Amino acid sequence: MPGQAVRHRPHHVRAACTTGERMTAIIIQLLIGGILLGGLYALIAFGLSLIYGVVRILNFAHGTLLAMAGIAASVMFAAWHLNPMLIGAILFPLAFGFGWLMYRYLLEPLKRRNPVQMTVGTVLVTVGLLLILSDLAALLAGPTSKNIPLEVSVFMVKGIIISTTDLAIFTGVVALTVALHLILTRTWFGRAVRAVTQDGVGARLCGVRAGTIHAATVGFGCAIVALAGVLYVLNFPVNPYDGFALTVKAFTIIILGGIGNLLGALLAGIFLGVAEALTGFFWTSQWAPGLSIILLLAILVVFPQGLLRRSGT
Fold it and tell me: Phi first, then psi: what are they for 163, rounded to 5°?
């Protein structure tokens, strides 16, 4: 009988099967964690890609905004026990307003300079914001890592542990990705963004205010990363000085996936998240954060012009 054959397997055969099944479960568990982390990385990259694609500004403070939003979310949860969805609804307009003001008063004046001065100026402004915001967050909330300690229920499917937090993060990533796609393809704002990007002069002749669209784009990009920050601290701790590393990951993703390509950014983010998870398990966790730097350098060596370069730009 087949059942008897299994029960009377030699001990070393049963041990090998058990080890193999356990390793398979571990790999699947790592893949699930990597996909969730990669989806969050993709959300960070969406905002950065949108800002660069429309305004042509690389915001080095982008990852720090995620850290700020995550720390603010954890503080609000600890103080008032607010639902994370409500916290996101509060932070979204605040981050939008911050991005709008940042563009209007710090970045837009640089547009009137020559290209070299504008590029150097935007780097100095955004790096300065990175340092200021990091120190401000550390002053207000302390330098230690923060997260939202939700009560987590888990269930197991064939040895794979899945938590309600994982499902919440996955649902949030999918919902925000779909919402962003619909906003950019089905709304007036999306059409205006495409018009300003493709032909700024023509868009202005048609009555589109490029400055307003640019400010709204920066605000929207900051709002997206604030929501990503709320989702991030549901499962991963963040401290005020994690911002630059997160920005580098976002740079890597938009180079891999392409400027303005949501699907490409999502796939690149998942690839990076899975690669970090597998590197941390099979090699050492100390190398996992530096993997994005290695990938970025490797890509730029293979493609000297960079994948950010597009025809006609």
Answer: -105, 160
